């Protein structure tokens, strides 16, 4: 046996929804981030609350890609597949590379298990064309029971530790420090130390099994970090990073943070996370429905807080009336839309980018609203911070788009320093306007002044009816409505956003364009095309309304442009509307899954050759 160094590796944990694959994957990714590896994860689980045990539809997966340098995607296919039962092997083998190592629990491949997984024979490996020499066949369940025989735990409790044995085996295979894993478990189960120690014992047993038997593997692999930037790091999901971004923005602005929300997959974790931080002045309210969640956040903004509401696509439909109220009242509000597969209930646990046009235009009347889209799990922090800054400084509701892929996925995140974050300066009404101020008086940039209730001399009323621009009284005057409509639009147009950045070749034959969470896959596709000798560049939109000022100049500079998105062409249509003469190629998929880099490379190569 020898230890071989790799630049990157992809591991996929799979099993029943109750087998703890998400936890095993999270621990492995956290340990990898702790030692400085680049990571990208992809939880892939069914919408069933608890699918029948051993069924093909109930398989839950967690894929983690670790690298010596920066990692952009969870990987197209895995180098190691953990399959806890027959159904997991049957459904997840498609995600394994031809030479992948496969770890299975032979105790879960009995006749009934094979029948549920729709295998025709008992030779399941031969039936799937899998080389037995690549399979670590371990009686995992039996060994876990033997390991915990003296623990006093019942059979059901012991079976819940099976995922830790598989994790221990993977940790051996990739030379991971078990002390880091033990520390994670002792912290997670701080109130149940007996559970923590039982899991640690099982992980050690899995590691020992690999070490003592060499587990049919030729080598142990190590992924060493090539470049280390000093700082404090953590493995963070997009939802947690979003929550932290809101907390940081409220802290920087000197305001309380209020979240009014109604639970909905895949956004609920933001509510869960923020509810843990009352010590930071965070107020969370689980409301009775979507519109009350949004309306209560708007009320909090009127009262002088940073109002936030979180949801997914179906919830945005229901919140739209209250969002429009925020537009006409000109109050700060952040609407977080963690996109999922639609329409209607659609695919609750899968990811899409199909809410873009709804975010831009899905309201009655002329109701302009800034829209941002986070590009990665770690970028969710900055996107949330910038969305809050934009809402507070320009007195407007802002839509922040993430999606299930980056919300549930994770990456290595360097904790920022509060002192280095951008300042947030809300346009409070100046004291010298006391006695002369009316509710729709504006600062030089067109932003309405913010008067917090309780300031003597600044009492006022806001509402959903159109107001006179001078007096603030209800007005149906045609010229006044035209003026107010233009003022609300101009306020959004005046917002300064960073220029659109272009990575890659300045003289590229093809520019790859996307928005939000597809950044990593499109960047990887660009890298692979450049490695083949093609001249390629990439431009990824984070700011969608207003668009960066150099948008037209960038898009019209290149001979060929392809817009790739996980919808039927919403960004392409929007850019055609905004940029005269822009006619791009399009790559569109709506599968509820992230892009596959290999498919992108093949499609883009065809466009270049045309």
From TrEMBL:
One Pfam family per UniProt: PFOR_II
Domain Pyruvate/ketoisovalerate oxidoreductase catalytic: 18-206
A GO molecular-function annotation: oxidoreductase activity, acting on the aldehyde or oxo group of donors
Tagged with keyword Oxidoreductase: yes
UniProt keyword annotation of Nucleus present: no
PANTHER family named among the record's database cross-references: 2-OXOGLUTARATE OXIDOREDUCTASE SUBUNIT KORA, PYRUVATE-FLAVODOXIN OXIDOREDUCTASE-RELATED
Protein name: Keto/oxoacid ferredoxin oxidoreductase, alpha subunit
Organism: Xylanibacter ruminicola (strain ATCC 19189 / DSM 19721 / CIP 105475 / JCM 8958 / 23)
């Amino acid at each position: 046996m020898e230890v071989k160094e790799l630049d990157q590796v992809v591991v996929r944990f799979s099993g029943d929804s109750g087998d703890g694959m998400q936890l095993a994957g999270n621990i492995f990714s956290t340990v990898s981030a702790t030692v400085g590896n680049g990571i990208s994860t992809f939880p892939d689980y069914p919408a069933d609350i608890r699918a029948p045990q051993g069924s093909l539809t109930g398989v839950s997966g967690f894929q983690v890609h670790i690298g010596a340098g920066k990692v952009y995607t969870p990987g197209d296919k895995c180098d190691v597949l953990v399959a806890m039962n027959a159904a997991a092997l049957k459904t997840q083998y498609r995600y394994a590379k031809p030479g992948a190592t496969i770890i299975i629990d032979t105790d879960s491949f009995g006749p009934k298990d094979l029948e549920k997984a729709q295998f025709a024979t008992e030779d399941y490996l031969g039936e799937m064309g899998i080389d037995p020499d690549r399979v670590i066949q371990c009686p995992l369940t039996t060994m876990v029971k033997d390991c915990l025989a003296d623990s006093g735990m019942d059979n059901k409790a012991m079976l819940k530790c099976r995922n830790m044995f598989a994790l221990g085996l993977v940790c051996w295979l990739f030379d991971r420090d078990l002390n880091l894993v033990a520390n994670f478990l002792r912290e997670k189960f701080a109130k149940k130390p007996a559970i923590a120690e039982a899991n640690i014992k099982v992980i050690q047993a899995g590691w020992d099994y690999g070490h003592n038997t060499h587990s049919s593997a030729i080598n142990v692999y190590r992924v060493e970090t090539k470049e280390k930037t000093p700082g404090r790091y953590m493995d963070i999901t997009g939802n947690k990073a979003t929550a932290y971004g809101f907390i940081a923005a409220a802290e920087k602005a000197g305001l309380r943070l209020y979240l009014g929300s109604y639970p909905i997959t895949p956004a609920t974790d933001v509510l869960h996370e923020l509810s843990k931080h009352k010590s930071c002045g965070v107020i969370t309210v689980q409301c009775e429905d979507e519109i009350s969640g949004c309306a209560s956040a708007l009320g909090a903004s009127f009262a002088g807080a940073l109002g936030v509401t979180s949801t997914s696509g179906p919830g945005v439909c229901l919140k739209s009336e209250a969002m429009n109220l925020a537009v006409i009242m000109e109050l700060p509000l952040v609407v977080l839309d963690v996109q999922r597969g639609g329409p209607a209930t659609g695919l609750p646990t899968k990811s899409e980018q199909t809410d873009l046009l709804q975010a831009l235009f899905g309201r009655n009347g002329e109701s302009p609203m800034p829209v941002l889209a986070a590009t990665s799990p770690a970028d969710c922090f900055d996107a949330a911070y910038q969305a809050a800054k934009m809402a507070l400084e320009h007195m407007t509701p802002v839509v922040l788009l993430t999606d299930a892929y980056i919300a549930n996925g994770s990456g290595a995140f360097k904790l920022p320093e509060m002192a280095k974050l951008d300042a947030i300066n809300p346009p409070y009404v100046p004291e010298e306007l006391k006695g002369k101020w009316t509710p729709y008086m504006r600062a030089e940039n067109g932003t309405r002044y913010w008067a917090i209730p309780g300031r003597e001399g600044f009492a006022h009323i806001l509402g959903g009816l159109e107001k006179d621009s001078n007096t603030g009284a209800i007005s149906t005057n045609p010229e006044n409505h035209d003026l107010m409509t233009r003022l609300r639009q101009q306020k959004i147009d005046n917002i300064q956003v960073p220029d659109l950045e272009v990575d890659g070749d300045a003289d590229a034959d093809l520019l790859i364009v996307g928005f939000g969470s597809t950044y990593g896959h499109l960047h990887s596709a660009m890298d692979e095309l450049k490695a083949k000798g093609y001249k390629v560049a990439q431009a990824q939109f984070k700011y969608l309304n207003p668009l960066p000022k150099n948008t037209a100049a960038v898009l019209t500079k290149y001979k060929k442009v392809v817009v790739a998105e996980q919808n039927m062409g919403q960004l392409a249509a929007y850019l055609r509307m905004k940029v005269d003469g822009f006619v791009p190629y399009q790559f569109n998929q709506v599968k509820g899954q992230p892009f596959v880099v290999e498919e992108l490379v093949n499609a883009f190569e065809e466009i270049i050759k045309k």
